[in-house]
Each structure stands twice: as structure tokens, then as C-alpha cells.
């Protein structure tokens, strides 16, 4: 057992403050629309539905979105289907999963905040427990009722008794409230502190010593699909990878695939991604990238650099560490892609691939904080993590991308996960319709996770289920089906007067037409009051998706209008102010 170097008390307090505010404190720590004409159907022709959710995958991390990382199976999906370049999630994990599965605003289904930050809200406040509540109704329940098999493998993070309580007839999941965990099986020789329990169909499961999360989840999903295959029922399968959330880990077969690829540093990688994005049509050729030099966020985790430092200002050893972290990340993503390919190959083998609607999406932008988080096994700052350079990505390590790598992950957008800047909420999204074999040009239609359930139901031929379920009131669907856009019948999902609003832990934004009003707060300010009173910023998304020029001061009438939209949202969904503890000054100031 190693004691981490540095100021354990302050580091621990920072971690506690940040993770309580944001997300991701594991319990093992001692400190605790309208349907289009095609795609729908009834009876035997009903399509299977596969939703693949990646955790913390950035806007620019897939090669089809401009990355240098090899993701050929996902790229093939994009070539057959359609890339959505203007697709939005919430800025954090659980809130996005609530919207993906229920089609309702996350506040209205018990997930106003994450399970980890429910303590910032009054006890027993149903809106803020961070778990699906009695107002929730999942797409799995609706599809199961309609005669679908329903399967899930992966990260749940919505509490509420887990997938077995929410319409999944077969499920394998990491414990129901955890945001992350060791991707390997914990053994006496490996890290116990990041280990999680796993549950299969509601019963705690024993995982093999050979467990690696992405490999195992796909194996499980294949076994579920195979067991139900041939009885005439279509399936709904939800594959929710732990990858590529921290800890960044990958089996040895992938760990050196990208050796030396990141030695040129953050800016070179980010610039190259932006150039490819423009060539691929992911972003307009005249887009002005966010400069990516904001000092809003200091990263305080180890290993890795502690600030928003430029590459050439890093020490040689920090460069070596940072490059290795990104090599591991890239290998982890290629492993995930290989697993996606294995699942596709299996669906083709059993003759089901062509009749499957496939939705691929991330739950939020690339993570750039790390939360200063190292799992501790006792209250004295002791850990069993081995973060020696040679062990990065291997069992027992616990590493994360730094701020600068996250900016590259979200190129050309501003900031990263946990912000309502575009880098936190713009996510890669790909949809392949059943029998679609030749892709279309990327769609820039504004869309969000709230649109997935309406799209799935429309494809399955299930009418809008309204605001009642099994005799009680539930939150109705809020989004629209994407099928008209995916079918090429329409170019936009939403009109210029439609308003889209979100809030998590007092982080917020309002979208209407080309306008986006948002607040970018610094969680590490010493005073929580500064966090709450931060000013709105205003950007024109049509001309400035890089969020480079705040035009709020020049548009007071517009700010007032969007503020009224915000207040209406607060009243509609019951937004409450979090009760924030005093935050601490970063350790390197
Ligand atoms: Ca996430």
C-alpha cells in the first residue's frame, strides 16, 4: 500500500468538494415527433433496436469525427448511416442516462442531480435523489410491453433498483449508483479500492479474473441476444460501456498501439483533428475554433500536469506521462471499437444486423478534470493504486485525461465535461436506420438525447405513450423523432422558436434558434457565492459554435428574453439551488 505524495489532506478535500459537486465519488472510497414512413412497422417486420452509449467520449475522439485514433467499426456504422454533428447530451453522466432512457427532462424523473451530489439538496427531495423515481418510465418498459426482448449490459448509474426494475428482462450492470469503477476484476494483487460489485438480473454476480469491462459487456449482450433469438420477437439492446471514463485502462494487446503518437503534444493533436473535421464536413470550413487557452479549470489529480500548461512548458517527465496517458486512452477506445465490431459481426452472423436500428452516442464531452481523484482505501490517504508510468493503463492503475487532452478530445469546442460549454454537451452521434447501407452527408440538425426515445418508438411503430403508465402519472416524452431528418424528409428537427434548456448542479444553458446563453463557472473558486452569481454569456451558434465571442452585453433584450425562458424552465421542472459547501483554493495556488 502506497501513501500518495503531496498534501493529502488538501488534495482529499479538493477531491471531495469537486466530486460531490460534479460526480464520480465511489462508495468504496473511505471518504466517501413524428415518425417517418420508413423504419416503423408492426409484427415480424419490427426492427431490433441497439443503443450504444460510450462514457465521456469527446466530440473529436472518433476517426469519423476527425481523430487520429482508429475506430473502424464505428466509422463503418457512420458510412452506412448518418453522423449527427449538432447532437447534445447533458454535461454529466447520470442526467444524460435518465434522458436517454426515459425521454423526459432528468429533473422530472428523480435525477435533478447525480447520485453523488444528492447531498447538496434537501433530504428526501424526490427531484434530487439522483435515482429514477415513480415519475419515470423507460423505453425498455414500453418496448417490453410491446413484445420486445429487452437487454442491457454496462453502467447504469441511475439507482432505482437497477435495470431489472426498469423493463430489462436480462441485464448485467456495475452497481447501480456508481459512475465508474475498475475495468478489470479486482484481485488480491490488483486494486481493490476502485472495484465495484456487479449484478446480473438483480443478483450480485461473480466476475472472472479475466474480466475487462468492454469485452465482458459485449460478451454478455451477445449471450442475451443469442438466447432470445429465433422466437420471433425483436430485441432492444442497451450497451452502456464503462469506457472511456476514467480510470483509463486497456488490455496489453492494445496498450502500445499508439506508442509515440502523442509525443507532439496537445496543440498539434488538436489542430490536426480540427483540420480533419473541416475536411470531413463535421464542422464548417470557416469555423473559428475555441482558442482552448482558458485558465478556468485547474486540474489537481495525479498523475499528470496540474494546470492548463502548454506542451512546451512541461518538463520532459510530464510530457512523457501525458503522452502515455493519451496512448492508453487511444488504445482503450480502439478496444471499445473492436468490441462494437464483434457485436456487429455477431448480429450479421445471426441475420439480425440489417433489421436493426442502431444509435451510437456519448453521454457527455471528454473529461478534463480527473476530479483529483484517487481511490483511497482508508481515511488516512492510503491507496493501493500503482500509478507508476510503466503501469499506466494496467490493472491497479488509475489515470485520466488532463484538461488539455480533453480540449483536444472536444475539438474545436470550448471546455469539456461538467460544463454547458459546447465541449461539455456536444457529443458524437451516429444513427443507422434498418437496412440502410449507404450513408448520407452529416446532418447539422440540432438534436439531443431527449429525441432518442421518440425516435426508437417511432421506428418500432409504438404511438406516443402519453403521461400515464400502468395507472399512474409519469413524465411525458419531451423530444421529437429524428426519423424525418434521418430519412431525408426534413433538414431540421426543431424550429427557430423552440427552446431547449438544461441545468445540472447550477450549471445551465438556454438554446433558442441560433442563440445559446450559458454560464461557465469555476468550481474551484474559493467562494461558492461566486459560483452562484456568475454572469450569463451569449453566443450565436450559427456563426460561433466555438464560443469565442460573448455578445451578451450587446444584446440585453435577447438576454432578458432567454432569461425569462430559463425562469419558465426552473418553474416547470422544479430546479432548486444546490447548497454548496465552501470550496477550497487549488493546491498549487
Ligand atoms: Ca459520462
What can you tell me about this protein's structure?
- The protein is of the alpha/beta class.
- The protein has helices at residues 8-21, 72-80, 93-102, 139-145, 213-228, 252-255, 266-280, 316-349, 403-409, 422-425, 452-460, 483-486, 528-532, 556-573, and strands at residues 2-3, 48-54, 82-84, 87-88, 149-154, 170-174, 198-200, 203-205, 235-240, 356-362, 382-383, 429-432, 447-448, 468-469, 472-473, 499-504, 507-512, 515-518, 537-540.
- It is 26% helix and 13% strand.
- The chain has a 9-stranded mixed sheet with strand order 3-12-10-2-9-5-6-7-8, with helices on both faces. Strands 16-17-18-19 form a 4-stranded antiparallel sheet, covered by helices on one side. Strands 1-11 form a two-stranded antiparallel ribbon.
- It is globular, with a radius of gyration of 22 Å.
- It starts with a strand and ends in a 16-residue tail after the last helix.
- The relative contact order is 0.19.
- Calcium ion (CA) binds next to loops.
Q: What can be said about the biggest beta sheet?
A: 9 strands, mixed
Class by SSE composition: alpha/beta
N- to C-terminal separation? Answer: 29 Å
Q: Tell me, what's the shape?
A: globular
